Fold these 2 entries.
Entry 1:
Amino acid sequence: MASLTRADVEKVAHLARLGLSDAEVGRLEGQLNHILEQYAKLAELDTDAIPPTAQVIELESILRDDVARPSLGRDDVLANAPETFEGRFVVAQILGGDRS
């Protein structure tokens, strides 16, 4: 796998609108090349026997079950609104039209 040159890092920094010093460009060149070397090692691994949905860690749902339960009645909810009209909330108008 080809490595990045200083010019490559400077070009990417320019495209990303990053103002990097010469020292930062040099450090990033080394770090990015190290990342590419590690990726090349990973690319050599035989992954044919690993299903595409395999995970490194076990996944578990952190969401609660979606269970229907009693809620407030319409009149109770509307009682908390600063303004209502014919059983609906009144909100600031953002488009043309009337209240119907």
Note: The chain has a mean pLDDT of 89.
Entry 2:
Amino acid sequence: MPAPCFNFTDAAHRLFERVVAAIPEFAHVDPARVLTTFAQCRSRDKHGYFAKVTPLRFKGGAEETVMRGVRWRWPKVNYQRREMLYLVTYYQPRFQNLPTLAEKLHTVIHEMYHISPGFNGDIRRFPGKNYAHGRSREWYDRQCRHFVDQVLARVAPEHYAFLQHDFAGLESRYGPVTGLSPRGIAPVRA
């Protein structure tokens, strides 16, 4: 019989589904077309990415774009017989070692809020130079904190209980942490 383990990406994806169901501002998201993955941090440093969303299309949902005279396209990413439009990657152990549940939920929401309201494989684009975070990073974070409060009020705690632990605590309680890896998913020359 195999040793017990904890599938982080399954747990994170179930939380993602619950957030979409509970918060109307995320109703446009189809969780079945968002692939949840995790990657190991190169360093144990507290600074750097905790998570990121990767849109699998370019601006406006375009399948190809030209950058610096070179045509690029995203390869089709299929999972469970569906084409994925987004990839959400959590960097472990850095993400799990965030000090509070609120900070972990904020990170989850921060990445979810980047998903375009058109759910076309592009990111949410705000007017102006800072198209990814709007007026300012502080403004973007305020929006996310509002959604975190809604998650805490509307999503049952068992769906985010795994976030109560740091990485060592997660392994101690559930066994080795496993899940899907994003390796090899990158734009290619068209």
Note: The chain has a mean pLDDT of 92.
